[in-house]
Design goal:
about 425 residues, alpha+beta, seven-stranded mixed β-sheet, 9 helices
């Protein structure tokens, strides 16, 4: 009998997932556990292996299409004479109509919100709110949306079962007021040019866009910049680099920076908090899960070094290396990509002189780390060559004042300029 593989219920309110890429085609022979399809997770793309051996009878959802939990994703024929039922929508193939959700995107903007899956789940999904479609929300949330003039269908849902929460509505209002709700604003259409390439705006890129837009129009960004003399840090790293290599550790500057960040967060807790918009409470976090913005094959992801305060510099270095490799290989787990309390954005030698990073919402701050450059500076009336680096911090001015941001960055600066203090700070 044909085997119908259905997208499983992966918990945490996920109701549908996005097919990024099929690795098999109709008519192909397929082996048990053979890589079959790539599906979006929180911030990574994972492969789903074939659940049975046989022949691919039908691909039920096109690339870029959405598959609901419990909906048949693929039909595998084991060679029996049973007839495979036709899908409810047009089959996948060259020239065939796309899945309905994909077809709608050509005329109606679909808003994406990444929804996390249960720890044991292999696949996470994208919840989609469509204008004109059924929107899940409580009467209270609907009332608030009406009062604020927010279209519920345009709000990315984060509640259980794809439900739009009151916090979602309040958070989205900033973007709506600044962009979508502008009188007379129309969607931008780009006329075809003589030499160009067009790629579907979907998957990771669209999820990043939705998250960044929400952050920019919800958190009230304030940026502060400071320069740091890291000459002693450069010397310290050079001195222990060989020792680290003997332990199998690739020691960059980032582990030192993260340990300095932990010390700063402990002294300035407003930089390690979030705003609960529903309960109207500021949540001060007494744990230190540091996010590291990492460029992967599918786009920007945030790997998370959990309990950075409890790890040594060498242990932090190992964890950074492990998570970065997992992201680049597309094998990062949900645990690797969620739950950060503060994020560091660093491009190493590509870090430039200055940036104003966008907060990893709903955190209260993000720090940009810029490249180390040897340049002349004045010390005790003399011009000397020193290794200098700029740090920038963007904070949510609703819950963290400029003073908090400045004092936090001064603490980080102090420790990086006198790195021996990192080993004296309580962990």
């Amino acid at each position: 009998m044909p085997f119908e593989f259905k997208l499983p219920d992966i918990g945490e309110g996920v109701v549908e997932g996005e097919v990024v890429k099929w690795m098999v085609a109709e008519g192909d022979a397929i082996a048990m556990d053979q890589p079959m399809v790539e599906v979006m997770t929180d911030k990574a793309t994972v492969e789903i292996p074939a659940p049975a051996k046989g022949k691919v009878a039908r691909l039920m959802v096109a690339e870029g299409g959405l598959c609901k939990v419990g909906q048949v994703l693929i039909v595998i024929d084991d060679g029996s004479a049973a007839k495979v039922a036709a899908p409810a929508h047009a089959p996948v193939g060259n020239g065939a109509p796309m899945h309905m959700a994909t077809a709608m995107a050509a005329n109606v903007p679909a808003t994406l919100s990444v929804t996390t899956a249960a720890p044991s789940a292999k696949v996470a999904a994208i919840v989609v709110a469509r204008p004109g479609g059924r929107v899940l929300a409580t009467p209270r949330t609907r009332k608030i949306a009406r009062e604020l003039g927010v279209d519920l269908a345009a709000v990315p849902p984060t509640g259980k079962g794809g439900r739009v929460t009151t916090a979602d509505v309040q958070g989205w209002r900033g973007a709506a007021a600044s962009v979508a709700a502008m009188p007379g604003r129309e969607l931008v259409s780009i006329a075809p040019g003589p030499s160009e390439e067009r790629v579907p705006f979907r998957g990771m890129r669209k999820a990043i866009a939705a998250n960044m837009t929400r952050s920019k129009f919800t958190a009230t960004h304030f940026t502060y910049v400071e320069e740091v003399d890291v000459t002693d840090l450069v010397g310290m790293r050079a001195g222990v680099k060989a020792m680290a290599a003997e332990r199998g550790v690739k020691l960059s500057y980032l582990p030192f920076i993260l340990k300095a960040v932990v010390a700063g967060l402990k002294k300035w807790p407003a930089i390690n908090c979030s705003l609960d918009e529903v309960k109207q409470e500021i949540v001060y976090k007494k744990y230190y899960h540091l996010g590291i913005a990492t460029q992967g094959p599918q786009g920007l992801s945030v790997g998370v070094v959990r309990d950075a305060d409890r790890r040594s510099i060498f242990e932090v270095a190992r964890e950074i290396e492990r998570i970065s490799a997992a992201i680049k290989d597309g094998k990062a787990s949900r645990e690797d990509l969620t739950g950060s309390t503060f994020t560091v954005s660093s491009l190493g030698q590509l870090g430039g002189l200055l940036a104003t990073p966008i907060i990893n919402f709903p955190e209260s701050a993000i720090m940009g780390v810029h490249k180390i450059v040897e340049r002349p500076v004045v010390r005790e009336g003399q011009i000397v060559a020193r290794h200098m680096m700029n740090l920038s911090i963007s904070t949510d001015h609703r819950i963290a004042d400029g003073y908090d941001a400045a004092m936090f960055l001064q603490e980080v600066k102090s420790l990086l300029e006198s790195p021996a203090m990192l080993f004296l700070e309580a962990s």
